[in-house]
C-alpha cells in the first residue's frame, strides 16, 4: 500500500524543533489542521498564527474540540490565503526570499505554476500577484 504524499516542514518551538507533516492535498477538501500545520501552510510561525486569530477578523477561525485540541478547517485556511495580500505579516524574511525567486526569470514560471497547482494562488489572482512582485522588485512596498 502506497503512503499518501505529504508536505514536510520544521518549526522552532519553545522546546526545540518540531517536525510537521501536512497532507499534500490539504486544500482539496475539508480536513482538520493543527496550529503547526497551519503555520507550515501559511509560512508563518505558530505565534503569528495565534496573533492573526486574535487581531485579524478575516483570518480563519479555529474550532476548539477539547481543552487541549484546537483545529482549523483546510478549506477556510485556503480561502483566507486566496483573499489575503501577498505579505502575510511578520514573515518578511520568508516573503522576501519567495519574492526574490519570483523576480528571477529562471524560477518565475516554475514557481508560479507550483503555487497555482497547490492552491496557494488562485488563477484569477495571478495578475494581481505579479503586479505586487513588480512593485516589490522596484523598491516600493507590496500592497
From TrEMBL:
Domain of life the protein comes from: Bacteria
InterPro entries: AlpA
Name the UniProt record assigns to this protein: AlpA family phage regulatory protein
Amino acid at each position: 500500500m502506497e503512503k499518501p504524499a505529504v508536505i514536510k516542514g520544521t518549526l522552532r518551538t519553545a522546546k526545540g524543533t518540531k517536525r510537521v507533516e501536512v497532507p499534500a492535498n490539504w486544500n482539496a477538501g475539508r480536513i482538520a489542521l493543527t496550529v503547526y500545520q497551519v503555520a507550515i501552510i501559511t509560512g508563518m510561525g505558530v505565534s503569528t498564527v495565534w496573533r492573526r486569530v486574535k487581531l485579524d477578523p478575516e483570518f480563519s477561525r479555529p474550532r476548539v474540540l477539547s481543552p487541549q485540541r484546537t483545529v482549523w478547517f483546510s478549506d477556510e485556511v485556503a480561502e483566507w490565503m486566496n483573499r489575503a495580500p501577498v505579505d502575510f505579516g511578520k514573515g518578511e524574511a520568508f516573503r522576501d526570499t519567495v519574492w526574490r525567486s519570483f523576480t528571477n526569470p529562471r524560477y518565475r514560471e516554475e514557481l508560479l505554476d507550483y503555487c497555482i497547482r497547490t492552491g496557494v494562488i488562485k488563477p484569477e489572482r495571478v495578475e494581481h500577484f505579479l503586479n505586487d512582485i513588480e512593485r516589490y522588485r522596484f523598491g516600493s512596498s507590496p500592497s
